[in-house]
């Protein structure tokens, strides 16, 4: 997929070499290093380059990933990769969506964020469905302003109370379709094989490497 105009464009390939990961999250950078290392890509974190974190003013996951990647590419003069992800609940019109991190408040309390989601669902008609999906948008930007983007997704339903201690964020209330364990109960490797992030990375690797 290309971020430029409506015309289908050839997908730009990513040459071996340095790639800025537009994230200050060390865990994310490590995970991406493991994924892309075998392709001759050398990830460097935005924190190592002292790049600022832009305000996420976009109204979609792709727009937010794109603005983070474009800023990092522009400031570093190197290709840059950014992601944006979150939980979308059908009966809540897609909330918390791009505000998934913000629902956890300043203290990043995801017990609170999960309770908020559950309370909002409980306030609806009793027969309301609990379908939800995680989305992960990846944007790969070059210093000349070219962007390629990819969107991964995993579908499931929300359970209450939360189950499991693994993972992070909303994992403990998310039961992926076709499985009996929540993301919070699953072995991390099993989650990584089916997650929205894995889906987006698979698409990106197939397209640009
Ligand atoms: P960001 O993409 O780093 O801004 O993360 C957005 C928020 O979405 C996270 O803080 C989590 O609350 C939520 N989220 C994204 N991916 C996952 C996941 O794999 N499991 C649980 N929560 C997630």
Describe what is shown at a glance.
The chain is of the alpha/beta class and 209 residues long. Helices cover 29% and strands 22% of the residues. The chain is globular and about 50 Å long.
Provide structural commentary.
It is a single chain. With 209 residues, the protein is α/β, with parallel strands linked by helices. The protein has one domain: Alpha-Beta Complex (Maf protein), CATH 3.90.950. Helices cover 29% and strands 22% of the residues. The chain has helices spanning 26-36, 61-76, 110-122, 188-194, 196-208; strands at residues 17-21, 41-45, 80-89, 131-141, 147-158, 174-176. The longest helix is centred in the first third of the chain and has 16 residues, at 61-76. The chain is globular. The model has no long low-confidence stretch (mean pLDDT 94). It binds inosinic acid (IMP). Inosinic acid (IMP) is lined by residues 83-87, 100-101, 134, 167-171, 183, 195.
């Amino acid at each position: 997929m290309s971020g430029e105009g409506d015309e289908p464009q050839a997908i730009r390939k990513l040459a071996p070499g340095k790639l800025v990961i537009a994230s200050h999250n060390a865990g994310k950078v490590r995970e991406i290093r493991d994924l892309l290392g075998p392709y001759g890509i050398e990830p460097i974190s935005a924190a190592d380059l002292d790049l600022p974190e832009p305000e996420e003013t976009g109204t979609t996951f792709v727009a937010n990933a794109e603005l983070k990647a474009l800023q990092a590419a522009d400031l570093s003069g190197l290709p840059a990769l950014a992601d944006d992800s979150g939980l979308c609940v059908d009966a809540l019109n897609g909330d918390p969506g791009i505000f998934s991190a913000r629902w956890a408040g300043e203290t990043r309390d995801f017990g609170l964020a999960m309770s908020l989601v559950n309370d909002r669902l409980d306030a609806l008609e009793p027969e309301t469905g609990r379908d939800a999906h995680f989305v992960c948008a990846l944007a790969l930007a070059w210093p000349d302003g070219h962007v390629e983007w990819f969107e991964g997704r995993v579908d499931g339903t929300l359970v209450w109370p939360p189950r499991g201690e693994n993972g992070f964020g909303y994992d403990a209330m998310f039961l992926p379709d076709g499985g009996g364990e929540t993301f919070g109960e699953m072995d991390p490797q099993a989650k990584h094989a089916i997650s929205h992030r894995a889906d987006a990375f698979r698409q990106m690797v197939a397209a640009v490497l």
